[in-house]
Amino acid sequence: MFILNVNILKMRKLVKISFFVVFSCLSHSINAQQDPQFTQYFDNALFVNPAYAGSTGMLTATTIHREQWVGFDGRPSSTTLSLHSPLSYESVGLGLTAVRDQIGPLNQTMFYGDFSYSFKLSKKSKLAFGLKGGLNIISANTSELQTTQSDDPNLLQNIQNKINPNFGTGIYYHNPSFFIGAATPKIIEQSIDGSETNKERRHYFVIAGGIIKINEYWKIRPTSQLKLTVSAPISIDLSLTAIYRDKFYIGSMYRLNAAFGSYAQYQFNKQFRIGLATDFSTTAIRNYNYGTFEILVSYDFAFNRNGIRSPRYF
User: Fold this and answer.
1) What is the per-residue pLDDT for 231?
2) pLDDT on residue 26
3) What is the residue range of 131's domain?
4) Phi then psi dihedrals of residue 81, to 5 deg
5) Which residue stretches of the chain have pLDDT < 70?
6) Which CATH number covers residue 251?
7) What is the pTM of this model?
């Protein structure tokens, strides 16, 4: 018992140190945000945080497609697919993420593998550390752009299938009623076109949330996401979801100085969930588009002896 208590105290100290290191990184001076964003970010954690791999306790597949600023020429369009599962040795989780992102003349296709290792802090709580590694394939048809300077040295040639390898890291704590994670999915700031001006900028994410039981039928789930990028404004998403009988999810979202939106999801059975979301800009660009729309599909595969953990809130 004494050894167990000592180990728990060590792990608690490790939690504090780990989050201190990550948040210290976040405190550095913060260029433009380049990675795609999603209204249903709370169901897309593996995209940014490799430590999430295997945390659902089963093989989980999730895809989200997002059409942003519909009706606006050159609008962002993003699709993400993630697969992740714990291994038979459940402390280890593996995952795969693929992303297709297009905005104007720029196209990005990302493929990443994810690895996590979890420590049990108590019977129901875990702390996971994660690594991700992969590549970003970039193409840009800059001849499509209308520029004010015809001889701009950064726009003289197109980019065709430039491959930028990268890696990222993250940590993730969770128990049945609360979670918090911090990550930077692409650490290396590589040039997109060989110049020092156009670079992939490092992004930092913190996602947190929890579940609160109101009565026999209703629960609420507050979540938040903080995103930091060098020389860009801080991005903060705040969401609140009402859950009825663990089947119907309906919620609203606010992105600081950027957008507000709503979403609805339905849990058809223990394994299959579908969600729809929309948001509208709070800036002047809202006058030139019809809003943003998003669809999510998620499926849990019951291959292990423990079956499906239901309900699963994050």
Assistant:
1) 76
2) 38
3) 2-301
4) -130, 130
5) 1-34, 143-157, 194-197, 303-310
6) 2.40.160.40
7) 0.84
